[in-house]
């Protein structure tokens, strides 16, 4: 069942159209990703969903509510992750949670919430002394303090090291498994692929596709990539002319060939015929980043 419905959303800043006719639905209990490059309109879209911005066109329903008209009621149903800079410098973790709990009619027990998020021993720690990953956990706690049905998490793992990022992902799954619908804004492919049940790809204000990560990748119809380092001069046109090959490009010392069918065999036979030995040869299946290139014609640069 859809808990969020966005239909033909349009949002302009002066003449700039930031969101241009975007429609999607978020099902109850899923992690729904909004993925796109910087400036694609992701934050503007979720700010309209949160009721923080007035759309210039289209309709939005969140748990049956109109986010602008029913803002007060929405606050108890939709939890928004706080940006780090919004917390005063010297506030302690427990004080911050206590303060935000006081904004809600029926808040969660914040001590229990801290325990659940692995911050049980940090209640007295000044917020500024936390690590990046711990700060993100506090921001998740603040999003959940009002016992919302939906949590919106925006660029949750930006700036975190890989381990802290993985820990945060596990936490987001835990939030989903506790029954909260999660809307996750991200420009990290790996995060979207690993975490999202479904996602909306947004590029330049327009919706490119909505599907599961596997569904988006399957649109590539079995595209593969072969990567190697030629140990002798190689004319890439030889590879590009093979029927299995769609593209052959140099990436520094490496050659990257994409194509379909028995690509690996076609490439290695061609190299053997031309007396070129391929070092560090690897074959890779297409991923979400390839799907993005396929759908938009350009790479989502991180
Ligand atoms: N308050 C504003 N006033 C004017 N233009 C804005 C404003 N906020 C965003 N924009 C512009 O609208 C477009 C969409 O911005 P938005 O922040 O929604 O994108 P985003 O996909 O969230 O990007 P990022 O990942 O960089 O946050 C961008 O071109 C941005 O410069």
UniProtKB/TrEMBL annotation:
Pfam families: ABC_tran (PF00005). It is found in: Cell membrane. It is a peripheral membrane protein. Its main location: membrane. InterPro entries: AAA+_ATPase, ABC_transporter-like_ATP-bd, ABC_transporter-like_CS, ABC_transporter_ATP-binding, P-loop_NTPase. One of its GO terms (molecular function) is ATP binding. Residues 4-229 form the ABC transporter domain. It comes from the Bacteria. This is ABC-2 type transport system ATP-binding protein. Gene3D superfamilies: P-loop containing nucleotide triphosphate hydrolases. The keyword DNA repair does not apply.
